[in-house]
Each structure stands twice: as structure tokens, then as C-alpha cells.
Amino acid sequence: MRTVGVEEELLLVDPETGEPRAMSAAVLARAERDGAERDVFEKELHEQMLEFATHPQSSMESLHAEIVRCRKEAAGHAGEIGCTVAALATSPLPVSPSVGVNRRYQWMEEQYGIATREQLVMGCHVHVSVESDEEGVGVVDRLRPWLPVLTALSANSPFWQGTDSGYSSYRSRVWQRWPSAGPTEVFGSAARYHRRVADMVATGAILDEGMVYFDARLSQRYPTVEIRVSDVCLHAETASLIATLARGLVETAAREWKAGREPLDPGVSLLRLAAWQAARSGLTGELLHPESMRRMSAEAVVRALLDHVTEALEELGDLERAREGCAGLLRGGNGARVQRELLERTGSLRDVVTECIRHTQT
User: Fold this and answer.
1) Which domain of life, per UniProt (predicted)?
2) pLDDT grade for 38, boundaries at 50, 70 and 90
3) What domain range includes position 161?
């Protein structure tokens, strides 16, 4: 059974005002003093962010429990120094992000300017194990049309600098400012994948392989495919659902690759439009169907995703979990909808953030 791991980026905020706090170094120091497990919590690009990584898990129940535990531990460490964490993919309140001081982050600020300084966005990355680079590239080639559906399900960033962005996942639009971000062409083999990555690094436009920000890529550190299209999810249950669907997609794609089935290839231009549509409407409007690249209701496209991975999910024992999770999101809304409903009810973005602090740990 393929293992799954999740990396989540959380926003550090003042528990009373909801304003972002540049305290990641202090939180990490506190976590170390508290005896936190090594390599679970890490710095990110901005001082207002804190990242954690789960262990690889075979059981989705175990993965869900670890996500919940890591969120609570992060809140505990932050709380000891006067801040807390919120699973928000952008800050609803205005913020002037503080870029970290290490050499890598300073290089990025010098190279990319305002795109780096404004890149305070929090994502959820899912790692799914693969047997080899060849299988991994076969998977990456076949995942591409389905990834925007994960963006729509996870969308949790409607607000930007104190205003409604008009998007459900504005984080994904800000992320596209990186020169290496976005969907990819079909590679066809591991050799061609690695050659393309090497050529990208050789341009000097990016520092190293770690800055190859494909929507799905081979991990540098682990024998996994890393899926990078999701917002950090407001609720741990949604993060677990995204991981469940990601494993189903990887398993389905691997089987297609082994069977010699050619990947769907609508082209990068249509994949970009599908990603934009998912970011724009989330689950409240229409999406582009991954097979036809034509508009359909979000419900129909989510159902198509479930149909696509049904066989794999059933064998993994995850089908009912996935069906119930998708039905719950379609009925109750993703994080973007929850945030907008909170603003409509309270009239205050501060109240939106403080309420989302509570949602983060439930």
C-alpha cells in the first residue's frame, strides 16, 4: 500500500486581533525547548509562517490523527509565546510580510523582488510513495488534468490584503508568480523529466532543483510524487480528504502507466485555464471537466474525479471516506465559503480570523 505524508503551512496570528505575527523563529525555538520531535516543524519563506510535516502513513485514519496532533502542537508552542496558528491560505487582514533572513530566502527576494515579498501564502503538499522515478514520471504525466479539482476542493483563500479577491483560491494565483510554477507538458520518461529540470536550473532563473515548482513533481528528498496544488485546508478533515484523493489519483495513474495507457494531453494552455477556473469558483460555480475541458457544475466534476479513482480507492479501503468527504464539502462548503459566510455574519475580518483559529484545531 502506498504511503502518504502531508506538509501544511500555517499562518501565525495574534489570538485576539487576528493580525499576522512574524514569530516563526521564536515558535521554533520554543518547540525545540519543549522537546518537539525533530524535523516536524520548519521555517518557511516568511516569518509569519510555520510549516509541519507528518510521517508517511499507510492508514488514512493515522494520517488524519497526525495532522490533528501537529496542528494542536503547533498551536501549543505558539501559544507559549503569545501567538497562535490559523489554517488560512492567505491572510484576510492586511499584512506586510517579513522575508526570512537565511541565504536562500534573501536570494529569492533579490531575484524576484515584489513577488517574493508578497508571497505570504500557505499551501498543503501531499507526498505519495512511488516505486521508481520512471513510475513517478508516469504518474506525473497522468495526474495533470485532475489536479485543478483538488484546488477547488481545498480552496481556502478568498481574502487578500483586507478585501475579497473574487477568487476562492487566491493563493494559487499568487503562487503562479514564480517562474517555474504551474502545469507541465508530458515528459514521457524519467530521463526527459530530469533533463528538463537540469535545463531549468541551468538558466539561472531559479537557484536549484528545489525551486522547480511544478503542480506535481518528483520529490528531491523522498521516493514520492509531491502534489502541490492545494490550499492549506481550514479543517483537518479536508486535508485528510485531499490526501486520500491524492493517493487514489497516484495509484490510478500508476496502473494506467503500467498498462501502457497514454495520458490525457489537453496541453498546458488548457490546463492553465482549468487551474484558473478552479481558483476562481472553487465549489460554488463551474469547473472544467478534466476529460473534455468544457464547463460543468462543480458537483459533476467532483463526481467525475471520484469515478476516476473508484477502483483504486475501493481496494485501498478509502472509497466511503472519499465519498463522504466530497459530499460534505459540496453540501457545507470549502474553507473559502466558510470564511465568506463568517464575514457575512460578523461583518469583521478580524472575527473571521479568530473564528478560523478555532476551526483549525477541530
Assistant:
1) Bacteria
2) confident
3) 4-346
The chain-wide mean pLDDT, for the chain, equals 97
3-state secondary structure of 169: strand
Q: In this structure, is residue 357 part of a structural domain? A: no
Q: Is residue 356 part of a domain?
A: no
Distance CA 35, CA 80 (A): 14
Give the three-state DSSP class for 239.
helix
Question: How open is the CA angle 2-193-3, to the nearest 5 degrees?
Answer: 10
Question: Which H or E run includes 346?
Answer: helix 335-346
pLDDT tens for each residue of 138-162: 999 999 999 999 999 999 999 999 9
Q: Residue 362 domain-assigned? A: no
**What's the predicted TM-score (pTM) here?**
0.97
- CA 150, CA 169: separation in Å to the nearest integer? 11
352 within some domain: no
In total, how many domains does the chain have? 1
CATH number of the domain residue 73 falls in: 3.30.590.20
DSSP secondary structure, 173-240, as one string: HHHTTSTT-B------SHHHHHHHHHHHHHTSSSSSGGG--BSEEE-SSSSEEEEEEEEPPSSHHHHH
